[in-house]
TrEMBL record:
<dbReference type="InterPro" id="IPR000214">
    <property type="entry name" value="Znf_DNA_glyclase/AP_lyase"/>
</dbReference>
<keyword id="KW-0479">Metal-binding</keyword>
<keyword id="KW-0238">DNA-binding</keyword>
<keyword id="KW-0326">Glycosidase</keyword>
<keyword id="KW-0456">Lyase</keyword>
<dbReference type="Pfam" id="PF06827">
    <property type="entry name" value="zf-FPG_IleRS"/>
</dbReference>
<comment type="similarity">
    <text>Belongs to the FPG family.</text>
</comment>
<keyword id="KW-0862">Zinc</keyword>
<keyword id="KW-0378">Hydrolase</keyword>
<dbReference type="InterPro" id="IPR015886">
    <property type="entry name" value="H2TH_FPG"/>
</dbReference>
<feature type="domain" description="Formamidopyrimidine-DNA glycosylase catalytic">
    <location>
        <begin position="2"/>
        <end position="89"/>
    </location>
</feature>
<keyword id="KW-0234">DNA repair</keyword>
<dbReference type="Pfam" id="PF01149">
    <property type="entry name" value="Fapy_DNA_glyco"/>
</dbReference>
<dbReference type="InterPro" id="IPR035937">
    <property type="entry name" value="FPG_N"/>
</dbReference>
<dbReference type="InterPro" id="IPR010663">
    <property type="entry name" value="Znf_FPG/IleRS"/>
</dbReference>
<keyword id="KW-0863">Zinc-finger</keyword>
<keyword id="KW-0227">DNA damage</keyword>
Amino acid sequence: MPEGHSIHRLARQFSSVFGGERLTVSSPQGRFAAGAARLDGHVLEAAEAHGKQLFLHFDHDLYLRIHLGLYGAFDFGGDETFIGSSSIGAPRRLGEQEVAGDDGAGYSGPPEPKGAVRVRLVSKHGWADLRGPTACEVVTEAERQKVLARLGPDPLADGADGAAGRAAEFTRRLRSKGSPVGLLLMNQEVLAGVGNVYRAEVLFRRRMSPWRLGRSVGEAEAGELWDDVVRLMNDGVRQGRIITTEPQDRDDTGEPVPVSEAHYVYKRTGLPCRRCGTPVAGTEMGARKLYWCPSCQAD
Ligand SMILES: [Zn+2]
């Protein structure tokens, strides 16, 4: 599942390729036909992410709310002025499609939709196809506010002003719960945007047992946890991938960082811990695989 950093990148991409453009909106698959009709012909004013939620703001104060979930993905294509010819979300099972116009041969509109395209957005210069989302609906400002009110703070939210407030809010929400931190970090009501990779990696980096209960985490510890999530996720937005290891903990120090050196514990079950050599352990927590070092992250 794409974590929050991917959704923030997606929001930036929408702003850059469709911002200020009047869009033709359709649902080739038909499942979103009524919603698409409410947006068709309107101008996209802004795209924003909160955690794993994407909101596309149209000029008549309606929003398209999208949650990609495990299988959702966008494909983009268009002419040479449209810098979005890539896919963000789940890997495309059929491989990425090359799009006419990328080679400067001219752009004559989007290709025939392939597969179950829930929504297609088309501007003068390019198009985006969404397949397989968990949520895709038109919401009003009031409904958007309701969705946001349920979510915890987003480590990637803009604005230094609210930074202290967001940290304090995370600390308050984390420490009010009696569940293990391994569950709470994935709970979007505690903080919005963290998924399975960041959960495992940040707990390792803070040397914290995934079974520590939220209410037993001290204020200073919670603040450090938050700061590390903010740092790692901002790196993720910049780099377009998740790298959590420090250079001194990698065996191969080549650049770009090899996939095999990018993480401390995520998907490293049985391999030696980069810090202490203990085999990395794996189990299920919150219906997702959890990875940790039993020595570095002892209770
Ligand atoms: Zn270790």
